[in-house]
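Troubleshooting: if your tokenizer reports a length mismatch, compare your output against this known-good record of 141 residues.
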Amino acid sequence: MVFMGFAEANAQKKNNTDSVRVTLRFNNNVNNNLPLDSVYVILDRWDLSGAGMIKKMYQPKDNVIVLDNVPRGKYYIDVFCLGIYQQTFSEVSWVYNKRKNRNTFNFRMKESEVYSDSTVRIPPQRIDWMKLTVLNNRTYK
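Known-good structure output:
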């Protein structure tokens, strides 16, 4: 039997315009571009119609996280970096198809130091015992 190529017709795939790809980039230049351990990402709808649309722990590859199939709209974007570089980022932003920066959000990491006993310095504290409120007679009238 000859099927003349009509056995399986591939329909053109329609792009899902209701969802977009969101990219989170972490600029870790101040720490020699060392990789992040793990990142907890929360995307909440701004209009309170979908609390926690995305709540997930991610392992960044080359300090980049790609979120696929994020519905269009305005979001509260909360990012919590865990591990050595413990920082938090919050942003309110629109996510839609024809955005100029293609839904890429850049977060600049701050310099972090590894804890060492020799680098800790506790400044001296001077307490004037005569200026305590308990000793002040005017407070008990």
